[in-house]
């Protein structure tokens, strides 16, 4: 049995593949993938201007959470009183796969049961797990006037 029978592809084609060409192709592929991810993040729409009706959340005690819908009925929202003066509200959809996020009062963080992701209580930023971005903040205000009573802290240093 010859070597040609054991390894059935054309030797001439194999000679045209060299290390430099392989590395060039690999680097170009990595750059294309990274560029696509970056471009995709730029083109992603910002958070919708959702508002939670204030009377629903006024009675929350520190550490308590309330799952509700936004004033327009568009998004499921999780509202938490993190301290006596601060209410935060976030879209309940996990940014990874859209599973409903839950509040863990024991650990004072938001958690996604699908892939064990966790999010900061005040900012919604990712603490652990596969999501690449944090929870989407939702304004808390009077639904009739859209006047903000409080707002979710965005984690950008503006809150």
Describe this structure in a few short sentences:
The chain is an alpha+beta fold and 159 residues long.
Summary keywords:
single chain, 159 residues, alpha+beta, Rieske Iron-sulfur Protein, 2 domains, four-stranded antiparallel sheet, three-stranded mixed sheet, 24% helix, 28% strand, disordered C terminus
Helices and strands, with pairings:
Blueprint: H1 3-6, H2 11-15, H3 19-43, E1 51-53, H4 54-57, E2 65-69, E3 76-83, E4 86-91, E5 102-104, E6 109-112, E7 117-120, E8 126-128, E9 139-142, E10 147-150
Parallel strand pairs: 1-9
Antiparallel strand pairs: 2-3, 3-4, 5-6, 6-7, 7-8, 9-10
Walk me through what this model shows:
This protein folds into two domains: 3-43; 51-150, Rieske [2Fe-2S] iron-sulphur domain (Rieske Iron-sulfur Protein), CATH 2.102.10. The protein has helices spanning 3-6, 11-15, 19-43, 54-57; strands spanning 51-53, 65-69, 76-83, 86-91, 102-104, 109-112, 117-120, 126-128, 139-142, 147-150. With 159 residues, it is α+β, with helices and mostly antiparallel strands.
Total number of beta strands: 10
How far is the first residue's CA from the last residue's CA?
75 Å
The proportion of residues forming helix, as a percent range, comes to: 10-25%
Summarize the main sheet: 4 strands, antiparallel
- At the fourth CATH level, what is the homologous superfamily of the largest domain? Rieske [2Fe-2S] iron-sulphur domain
Low-confidence stretches: 142-159
CATH fold group of the largest domain: Rieske Iron-sulfur Protein
Pattern of helices and strands:
HHHEHEEEEEEEEE
Major sheet: arrangement of strands: 5-6-7-8
Give the overall pLDDT as a whole number.
74
Determine Rg (CA atoms, Å). 25 Å
Tell me which oligomeric state these chains represent.
Answer: single chain
Beta strand %: 25-35%
If classified by CATH, what would the architecture of the largest domain be?
3-layer Sandwich
| Helix count from the secondary structure assignment | 4
Q: What structural category characterises the helix and strand content?
A: alpha+beta
């Amino acid at each position: 049995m010859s070597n040609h029978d054991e390894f059935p592809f054309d030797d001439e084609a194999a000679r045209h593949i060299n290390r430099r060409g392989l590395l060039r192709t690999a680097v170009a592929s990595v750059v294309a993938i990274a560029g696509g991810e970056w471009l995709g993040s730029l083109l992603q729409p910002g958070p919708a201007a959702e508002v939670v009706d204030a009377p629903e959340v006024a009675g929350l005690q520190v550490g308590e959470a309330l799952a509700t819908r936004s004033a327009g009925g568009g998004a499921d929202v999780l509202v938490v009183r993190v301290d006596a003066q601060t209410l935060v509200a976030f879209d309940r959809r996990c940014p990874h796969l859209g599973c409903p996020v839950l509040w863990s009062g024991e650990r004072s963080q938001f958690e996604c049961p699908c892939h064990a992701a966790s999010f900061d209580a005040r900012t919604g930023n990712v603490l652990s797990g596969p999501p690449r971005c944090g929870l989407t903040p939702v304004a808390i205000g009077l639904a009739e006037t859209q006047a903000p009573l409080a707002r979710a802290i965005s984690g950008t240093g503006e809150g």
